[in-house]
Write a structure and sequence with these properties.
It is a single chain. The protein has 115 residues and is mainly α. It contains 5 helices and no strands.
């Protein structure tokens, strides 16, 4: 009895991996076994960095809010504490955007929170 090879599924699997490795340098995009390792590693980085991205953006927002707050004679922590005390629910993403792109509105928020 002849050996079953399942060529269609094998070919499709290899083609999918090489398609994912398109744009990689050298053998990483040409040789199946090398491409397989690099695609797997790339997927691990993608999974990890989807979570890391959230942390990185929060750090950026806090930095921008702090810079804007210091222009108005206060600090990030004092501003956030004042906003919480006055029960103003405005998230850091919006605050950072105001601090960077609309300083007048940010100044009003700071003045209201600290008054």
């Amino acid at each position: 009895m002849p050996r079953s090879q399942n060529k269609v599924a094998s070919h499709r699997r290899r083609k999918r991996i090489l398609g994912q490795a398109k744009g990689y340098w050298g053998a990483r995009s040409k040789v199946y076994t090398v491409a397989k390792h690099h695609v797997d590693k790339g997927m691990q980085y993608a999974y990890r960095d989807r979570r890391t991205k959230k942390r990185t953006f929060r750090q950026l927002w806090i930095t921008r809010i702090n810079a804007g707050a210091r222009l108005h004679g206060t600090t990030y922590s004092r501003l956030i504490a004042a906003l919480n005390k006055k029960e103003i629910d405005i998230n850091r993403k919006i605050l950072a955007d105001l601090a960077a792109n609309n300083p007048a509105a940010f100044a009003e928020v700071v003045k209201f929170a600290l008054a």
